[in-house]
Write a structure and sequence with these properties.
The protein is α/β, with parallel strands linked by helices. It has helices at residues 2-9, 27-37, 55-59, 75-84, 93-96, 118-126, 144-161, 164-178, 183-193, 202-216, 223-250, 254-263; strands at 45-48, 67-71, 89-91, 104-110, 128-139, 266-275, 285-292.
Length: 293
C-alpha cells in the first residue's frame, strides 16, 4: 500500500485516466459512465471500489445527487476524493469487510477492483443489494494498455539489466574530461541492450533522447545536473516498470471477469464488452455491466 500512497501523493487528482489532446476526459469513458447513471434515482447509494482520486465521480455530471461511498486502500487517495466530494463516506479496506448487511444500490469501479485480493472483492460484492447493479472498467489482458505496458516494461528491464543510466552518466563524465563526444561508445552501450532504437517507447525513448542531447553538449551542463538527471531517470524508469508490471499482472481475460462476477453473484444481464477509444485499434478495457441475483 505504500507504493499506492506514493503514487497518489505525487499525482494530480484531477488528471483523467484517459485524456484527449486537450487534457480532457475521453468521451468514450464519460459516455460509459453516463449510461450507467442515467436511470439511477437521485440519492441512490453508490460505492466506488478502489476509487483512487475519484475518477468515476468526476466522469458523471451530477455525482453530488447520489449518496456516495468511496473505498480505497490508500488513505491519501481517499483524502483526495473527500476534498472534491466532502459529503462522500470514506471506506477503508478494513471497513469494507465490516458491513453486516448489503446496502449499496450501484457498485462501480474504474481500473480498480482487479487490484483487490479475493477477500476484498467478495467484501465489495457483499455490500451490493440483491437486484443492485454493478458496472466497471477493467484492465483487459491483450488489450492496448496491456500490450503497450508489457512491451515498454520489457524495454525498461533491458535498460536496468545493462545498467544503462549509470553507464551513460559515466560516459558523459569521461566526455567532459576528454573534451570529446564519445558517440561510438554510447552506441555500443545501447547495442548491448538489443533494443531497436527506432521502436523505443515512452520511458526508454526519453532516456535515449535526453542522453544523446547531453552527450552532444557535454560542455554546456554542470556535472552535478547531469548526475541528477541520470539518477532521476533511473528512479523514474524503475517506478514506471513497477507500475506497468502491476497493471499487466492484474489484467483480466473475459473468462477471468466472468468468474469474478459470478463469485459475487453478478449473473443477471451480465454484459462484458471490449471498450475502444477512437484513437486506438485495440480495446483499452473491458466494460462490465450486470445485476446481482
Amino acid at each position: 500500500m505504500q507504493a499506492w500512497d506514493s503514487y497518489w501523493q505525487n499525482n494530480n487528482p484531477n488528471t483523467p485516466v484517459f485524456s484527449n489532446h486537450l487534457g480532457q476526459s475521453r468521451v468514450e469513458i464519460c459516455d460509459f459512465w453516463a449510461s450507467v447513471f442515467e436511470n439511477l434515482a437521485e440519492k441512490a447509494v453508490v460505492l466506488d471500489v478502489a476509487c483512487g482520486a475519484g475518477a468515476v465521480f468526476d466522469a458523471i455530471k451530477n455525482a453530488n445527487a447520489y449518496t456516495l461511498y468511496a473505498h480505497d486502500g490508500s488513505p491519501i487517495a481517499r483524502s483526495k476524493v473527500l476534498k472534491k466530494y466532502p459529503h462522500a463516506s470514506e471506506v477503508s479496506n478494513e471497513r469494507l469487510l465490516q458491513y453486516k448487511k448489503p446496502f449499496i444500490e450501484q457498485l462501480v469501479s474504474q481500473f480498480g477492483i482487479e487490484y483487490l485480493d479475493d477477500e476484498h472483492v467478495q467484501g465489495a460484492f457483499d455490500t451490493l443489494l440483491p437486484g443492485g447493479n454493478f458496472a466497471a472498467l477493467v484492465h483487459k489482458k491483450s488489450g492496448y494498455i496491456y500490450n503497450k505496458y508489457k512491451a515498454e516494461g520489457e524495454q525498461i528491464q533491458s535498460l536496468l539489466q545493462y545498467d544503462v543510466c549509470a553507464r551513460l552518466g559515466e560516459l558523459h563524465e569521461r566526455s567532459a574530461r576528454l573534451q570529446e563526444t564519445l558517440t561510438n561508445e554510447a552506441k555500443g552501450i545501447w547495442a548491448q541492450t538489443g533494443l531497436n532504437l527506432s521502436d523505443l517507447l515512452t520511458g526508454p525513448e526519453a532516456l535515449y533522447a535526453g542522453s544523446t542531447q547531453l552527450l552532444s553538449n557535454y560542455n554546456k551542463y554542470t556535472m552535478g545536473d547531469v548526475r541528477n538527471w541520470f539518477s532521476g531517470m533511473q528512479k523514474q524508469l524503475q517506478a514506471a516498470l513497477d507500475n506497468m508490471m502491476e497493471i499487466v499482472s492484474v489484467a483480466k481475460s473475459e473468462d477471468d471477469v466472468k468468474h469474478m462476477c459470478f463469485l459475487g453473484g453478478i449473473k443477471d444481464n451480465l454484459a462484458i464488452q471490449p471498450l475502444y477509444i477512437s484513437s486506438q485499434n485495440e480495446p483499452v478495457a473491458w466494460s462490465v455491466r450486470g445485476k446481482k441475483c
